[in-house]
Design brief:
Pfam families: DM4_12. The chain has 169 residues and is α+β, with helices and mostly antiparallel strands. It is built from five helices and three strands, in the order βββααααα. A hairpin with a 2-residue loop joins β1 and β2. α1 crosses α2 and α2 packs antiparallel against α5. The longest helix has 14 residues. 17% of the residues are buried.
Length: 169
């Protein structure tokens, strides 16, 4: 007659000061003996006791501010990656947003897009001389229609704004 017994595992964790002890054990029933097979691991680690453990005293780090122009440059790269044509398409989107501005009926998303695609909504200094093109595209869009924005930036076949908006005339 075979003996049947339940198999179980015992898992334990102990944290003592600067060490963690992890164990796993299971009984092994043999004919004449009972044996517990186990595995354990002990990890010694140094816990920080003060905030200065993470920093070098006297050295202060500051977050770099992202300018509108650096965000535009990232958007240009993303637009280029997805086949929208890079800088030309961003300039075209700024031109189109200025020629057919978002109004109060577009809600919060419309207001955010209006601020984002309106370079004159900031008084930040230019990072580079070439960043002046963004404001120039906005001024041209204010003076022209959306169709003229297409003519100004022919290398941009698809507008970034067409992804999430439609101009209704």
């Amino acid at each position: 007659v075979e003996k049947c017994c339940a198999t179980y595992f015992k898992v334990s964790f102990k944290i003592l000061g600067r060490q963690l002890i992890f164990g796993l054990g299971s009984p092994l029933q043999l004919d004449r003996e009972s044996v517990i097979v186990g595995l354990f691991s002990k990890i010694v680690y140094e816990m920080p006791s003060n905030a200065s453990d993470f920093t070098i005293p006297g050295v202060y780090y500051s977050r770099t501010q992202k300018s509108r122009w650096s965000i535009y440059k990232v958007l240009e790269k993303v637009a280029d990656l997805y086949g929208f044509g890079g800088k030309a398409c961003l300039l075209k989107a700024i031109c189109e947003a200025a020629s057919a501005p978002f109004d109060g009926t577009h809600g919060l998303l419309g207001q955010l897009l209006h601020v984002f695609f309106k370079p004159s909504s900031t008084d930040e200094r230019y990072d580079e001389y070439g960043d002046r093109e963004y404001r120039a595209a906005e001024r041209l869009g204010e003076q022209m229609s959306t169709e003229n924005c297409h003519a100004l930036y022919p290398e941009c076949r698809r507008s970034v704004l067409d992804v999430f908006s439609t101009v209704i005339t």
